[in-house]
């Protein structure tokens, strides 16, 4: 019988973390084995919030890790007890009964997949970007859409490539398109537009497009990181 380990990488998310974890707790179900909140050496109160939650709700567990989403998610995945891993960002809210949707997709033969996504924004550019995520096109994928994957498949393809401090989600998703029947579940996950609000919608879209092109033409993980740190806040 399949069950789900939810992996949540965090770094300095104290402003939103309690509300986010409570949202997940309210949708807790027998399908969910555990919530693994893996902290990448936060300097705010993130770890304290997770500790408080883990004392109150037994399925929540805090894990320490070096900083970097790839290494954080690999660290938590290695400890996960569920047969399905569900990677979720702390600023993305999955739809109601998301666990049942995931189990149905896996039962129908999809060993990996995500949800379609909409931003919590009225900006027309972000509305279009979200609308495109309903299509099962590799170029429309990203970590904000969350990601489920059978644990055995995750191990088989080597997990996240820890050389990537940016682009780690896309790198793994591209592998999954080659090794599994990737499914886009047609229910909306809602993601925060905070990076777009900080950097500007069109400016950030441009930089993300350049990063994709750089990777396509052979840029190394180090080159992608340098570009990201130079141009994106």
Can you characterise this structure?
The chain has helices at residues 14-26, 46-56, 69-79, 98-107, 124-132, 151-156, 168-179, 194-199, 201-216, 221-231, and strands spanning 4-10, 32-39, 60-64, 84-87, 92-93, 112-119, 147-150, 183-191. It has two domains: 4-192, Spore Coat Polysaccharide Biosynthesis Protein SpsA, Chain A; 193-233, no CATH class. It has ten helices and eight strands. It has 233 residues and is α/β, with parallel strands linked by helices. The model has no long low-confidence stretch (mean pLDDT 96). It is 45% helix and 20% strand. The chain starts with a strand and ends with a helix. Helix 1 (14-26) runs parallel beside helix 2 (46-56) and helix 9 (201-216) packs antiparallel against helix 10 (221-231). It has an eight-stranded mixed β-sheet.
Number of strands: 8
Low-pLDDT windows of residues: none
**Topology-level CATH name of the largest domain:** Spore Coat Polysaccharide Biosynthesis Protein SpsA, Chain A
**Secondary structural class:** alpha/beta
CATH class descriptor name of the largest domain: Alpha Beta
| Major β-sheet strand ordering | 3-2-1-4-7-6-8-5
Output the keywords.
Spore Coat Polysaccharide Biosynthesis Protein SpsA, Chain A, globular, 10 helices, 8-stranded mixed sheet, 20% strand, 233 residues, alpha/beta, 2 domains, 45% helix
């Amino acid at each position: 019988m399949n069950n789900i380990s939810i992996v949540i990488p965090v770094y300095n998310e104290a402003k939103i973390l309690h509300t986010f974890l409570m949202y997940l707790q309210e949708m807790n179900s027998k399908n969910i084995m555990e919530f693994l909140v893996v902290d990448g050496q936060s300097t705010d109160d993130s770890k304290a919030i997770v500790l408080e939650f883990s004392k109150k709700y037994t399925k929540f567990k805090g894990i320490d890790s070096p900083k970097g989403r790839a290494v954080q998610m690999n660290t938590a995945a290695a400890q996960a007890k569920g047969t399905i891993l569900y990677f979720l960002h702390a600023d993305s809210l999955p739809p109601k009964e998301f666990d049942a949707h995931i189990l149905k997709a896996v039962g129908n033969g999809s060993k990996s997949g995500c949800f379609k996504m909409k931003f919590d924004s009225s900006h027309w550019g972000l509305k279009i970007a979200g609308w495109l995520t309903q299509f099962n096109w590799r170029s429309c994928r990203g970590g904000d859409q969350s990601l489920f994957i059978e644990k055995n498949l995750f191990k088989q393809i080597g997990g996240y490539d820890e050389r990537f401090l940016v682009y780690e989600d896309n790198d793994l998703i591209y592998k999954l398109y080659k090794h599994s029947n990737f499914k886009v579940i047609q229910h909306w996950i809602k993601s925060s537009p905070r990076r777009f609000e900080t950097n500007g919608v069109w400016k950030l879209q441009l930089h993300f497009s350049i990063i994709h092109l750089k990777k396509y033409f052979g840029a190394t993980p180090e080159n992608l990181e340098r570009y990201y740190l130079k141009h994106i806040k």
